[in-house]
Amino acid sequence: MRHPSTTQTFADKVKAIPGGEHLELCYSCGTCVSKCMIQQKLEPDFNPRRLLRMVMMDMKEEAFTGPTTWMCSECDLCYEACPQEIHISGVITAVKKIAAEHGRKTILKTAVVDQQTCVGCGLCVESCPYEAIKLVQEKVPYRGHVQVAQVDPSLCMACGLCSAVCRSTSIGVPDEFTDKELMEDLWSWLQPQEVLT
Amino acid sequence: MADAARQPRIDVRAYTEVEKVEGFVGNFKVTLREKAKYVIADRCNGCGDCAQACPIEVPNSFEMDLAPRKAIYIPMSQSVPLIYSIDLDACIHCYKCVEACGALEAIDFSQEDKLVEEDIGAIIVATGFSHFDPSVMEEYGYGRFPNVITSMEMERLNNSAGPTAGDLIRPSDHKNPQKLAFINCVGSRDKRYNPSCSNFCCMYSIKNAVLLKQMDPEVDITIYYIDIRTPSKGYEEFYNRAREMGIHFTQGRPSLITEDPETHNLFVHSEDIGLGHVIEKEYDMVMLNIAAIPQPDQDHMSSVLNVAQSPGGWFMEYHPKLRPMDSPTDGVFFAGACQGPKDIPASVAQGSAASSRAGRILHSEEWEIEPTVAVVWPDRCSATTKGRACGLCAKACPYGAINILSPETPAEVITAKCHGCGGCVAECPDNAITQLHFTDAQILAQMRAVLASKPEEKIIAFRCHWCSYGGADLAGTSHFEYTANERGLRVMCSARLDTDFIFEAFRLGAGAVLYSGCHPQDCHYITGQLLGAKRAKRLEKIFSRMDMTEGRFRIAWISAAEGDKYARVLNEMQTVLDNIPPEELKAEIDRLKPEMSKRLKRFPGVPDVSEAMEYSDALTKVINELKEAA
After folding, report:
1. Closest CA to A79 of A31, A115, A119
2. pLDDT attached to residue B138
3. CA B384 to CA B386: how far, in whole Å?
4. Do A50 and B480 make contact, defined as CB atoms within 8 angstroms?
């Protein structure tokens, strides 16, 4: 009798996480890829079908470094279209969780908390659709031990919802999507345009 | 078909439905509804003058609604018998057909449906299949975009006897399409609609592509597929020929079809798996290769014929490999796609096999059945003892083989219909039915022999003959190691497993009991497993109320292919036993003994084997007497 193997493959790990169970039903028809808006509008290398193959073929490194693991917005257009009813975004989230356990960080810009102004109200925690924010007790310079928000960069998708709900403008995605930058853009549009002669 | 109609011993009854089937193998009584055609069959010569005179036009369903037909019509030009019929829903009663028919006087509006009863020896079911309606898949736009057609519509457009005389045209502008896409697996291999493969579509789309390419080598055809399946003789060669002809094969299931509203050209979006990126291509016309599904009235037919259905809804065969043309009911056979989607060679082979099987019945005076049938002891039946038959046995029988003619007469088993599952035996509260070769005494004797020494170490595994026994067998031949404390007892079906057997096993001190059988859809006795499962659930509840250690009574449905599962279940049960300290197990067995004997219904006072054997002997005597009397 063959004994059950004791080593857990990448696929076993993914299947053990809720959402990743039906991984091996994929017969590579490609419906998810041609349905995906991120693939078509944002990142041509985004390919859920290929990620599922990588998981099945134990290709950890490739899965962790590719864009598919990090860029899925969980819109679930593919889930509706999948003939095998695989919850693909669930599988991707499972891969993402494993990647985070391995200390990998997202390739996207993520939200950052300004610990000096954060009051620890928890509004952002409630608003985050990816459950990437939690409140922690931390020693902050000049403020002592206070409760502040903390972003898990492996889960954050940089949607900016936290930034929109924050009453003290203490959280946001830097360089592009903080309140200040957006307001500057807005003001620049509202300035009277020079009329070209 | 015309050949068959010319045979003097073949009677073709078109436009006739099977209303009721009674009786058993060799002696069926079949009630047929001969539907009114409003045309007298003996007088109509099929000249068609009436159809020419008819002013009403309705869509012709044989042409997939691509052409009209009249209210008086024949379904297709090769119809056998060639007799017109009137569609009364469409008819406006202008009686122009009556005028056109003239002196033949074949039209008779006063006709009504006729019920006919026939004596039939054997039945062959060849009701075929139906097709999936792709309009529910909104992404493909069937019904919204005129140039998206189904494979059946393609078949008519491509046919020289079809509405366009074989000229393939686009429905939107009637031009010949130059760029075509065929999409395979529309509605099949799709868990949302039909999870199974429709078997013949791959070959079918290749055939259509080759036909079109032969007619016009310039035409550009792309077949979108998930997997191309060409498993039979010569099929792969045909596939290669199609590739050599320049037909494009793209691996990738399209997710969306969009339309250019002006030209009505179509854009197919899919991933090209070979290239690894998304492609979007423009086509003149798209054909959806739709799934084969069971007939809409398949459920009704299965209850009329008393045959079971497989999970997909198709009729269930007796054995998927060895007896694919036989139904579980003797004397009923299957031919073609009613039993599951299949292509022409397979349908022809199955049809020939079914007819020779049926011929065997018609040519024999006597019919052999399995000897494990149920027998009633009339003196014990509640009809005799209490004056009122309880009817539990008749309710339990999946084959309708038990007759209770009136409440006062004891139950009767129609031996020719009985398949020997033993469900009635376990259900009978008065111990008035037994199953030959699987009598209570025989099973009890086996159990006692097994539990004679160190019963607390033993695991009694009740297995059904067709699945779990096969599973145990496979576990052995595959050399899967499982506990040596297992003792297997075979019954024909889990429906035979009387609650008394389980109680008795525990009363005798068995360590654990496994109640195993087929998976519900695999049961060889139609609904036998369901009966067994219900009983097992009841037992489980009783044991949990008794506070028995969880896992000492285990239910598992194990198929003949699941040797690994059998071994795993047994090993898990052994682990349960190993985890109970011996003195605790002994205390539990002793505590539950009186509870168990209280629940034993059959044998008041629980007889020894010798007493059970006496009962068995008495029963054999009764059976012999009955035989002599007959």
Report:
1. A31
2. 92
3. 6
4. no
- The residues that bridge with B259 in the sheet, in sequence order, are B266
Question: Tell me, what's the pLDDT at B319?
Answer: 83
- How are strands ordered across the β-sheet holding B266-272? B256-259, B266-272, B277-283
How far apart CA B562 and CA B470 sit, in angstroms, is 8
For residue A29, give the nearest of B226, B269, B278 by CB distance.
B226
Residue type, B415: T
List chain B residues with CB under 8 Å of A27. Answer: 189, 226-227
| Distance from C-alpha of B254 to C-alpha of B139, rounded to nearest angstrom | 9
In this complex, how many residue pairs, one in chain A and one in chain B, have their CB atoms less than 8 Å apart? 60
Q: Is the ipTM of this complex over 0.85?
A: no
Residues B162 and B67: their CA atoms lie apart, in Å, by: 9
* Mean pLDDT on B427-456: 86
Amino acid identity for residue A96 in this structure:
K
Q: What residue spans of B68-157 are helical by DSSP H?
A: 96-101, 151-157
How near does any CA of chain A get to the CA of B251, in Å?
7
**Region A76-91 average pLDDT:** 93
pLDDT given at position A3: 56
Name the token pair of B411.
Answer: 């139950």
Interface of A with B in 53-82 (CB under 8 A): 81
Cβ-proximal residues to B598 (8 Å cutoff; 6+ apart), any chain: none
* Rounded Cα distance, A53 and A25, in Å: 11
What is the spatial distance between Cα B30 and Cα A10, in angstroms, rounded to a whole number? Answer: 60
Q: Two tokens at B373?
A: 């049938």
The answer, yes or no, to whether residue A119 has pLDDT greater than 70, is yes
